[in-house]
Amino acid sequence: MEGTLVVNGMIISSSDTGENDKRIVLLTRERGKVTAFANGARRPTSHLLSAVKVFSYGEFELFPGRNSNTLRKAVIREYFPSLTEDLDRIMAASFFAEVAEYYSLENADERERLKLLYRTFQALSSGRFSIRLIKNIYLVRTMALNGEYKSAFSEKLSESEAVMSAFYCAEKNPIESLYSFALSEEAEAEFERVVTDLRKKFMEHTFKSESFILSV
After folding, report:
1. CATH fold group of domain 82-215
2. Measuring CA to CA, which residue among 126, 140, 60 is closest to residue 93?
3. CATH tag, 5-78
4. Domain regions of the chain by residue span
5. What is the pLDDT of residues 99-141, one digit of tens each?
6. The pTM is what?
7. Which residue from 39, 79, 88, 132 lies 20 to 30 Å from 155 (Cα-Cα)?
8. How many helices (H) and strands (E) does the chain have?
């Protein structure tokens, strides 16, 4: 439709506003991070009711206004329903989305970040990997995407070959095959320790949703 903006991406946050409206933040291929308002979306009869759920992936038609965007309609291709059926997965997905929202920019090329988040949600939904492993792979790749991260191979950060191999895969693998390996419990713990040390240098921000992952 003339005058509208069509974007493809994922809702990374959704909150109530006004009596019946929703405010959503999208991570999109075309425009990076985009904020929009879905008027009346909380009404039971609204055609947008099921389209403004967090983690929904699809095509969104927006009407750009002077100060904000308005959601006109959406075609949702993936809801990731298994993420809402388990508390641990909900909390992990919320953390991944919060990280993506914090680091993504408006009107920027965020295609790789969107692809990373989508693939991470697929891995989380599959149940084939531990949440701890997924979290640390996601964080390493996020640091790499942010551009300030110094490769783990610039200095040997662990004596464990398995851990260094995990860093190589997290840094270098195509995102489509990012989640393609497992680690022993001991190696997972060591991987997390090194990632935590790197975050102190390259990811100083504290994320609210991460505390829920640690507590469940």
Report:
1. de novo design (two linked rop proteins) (1.20.1440)
2. 126
3. 2.40.50.140
4. 5-78, 82-215
5. 999 999 999 999 999 999 999 999 999 999 999 999 999 999 9
6. 0.93
7. 132
8. 6, 5
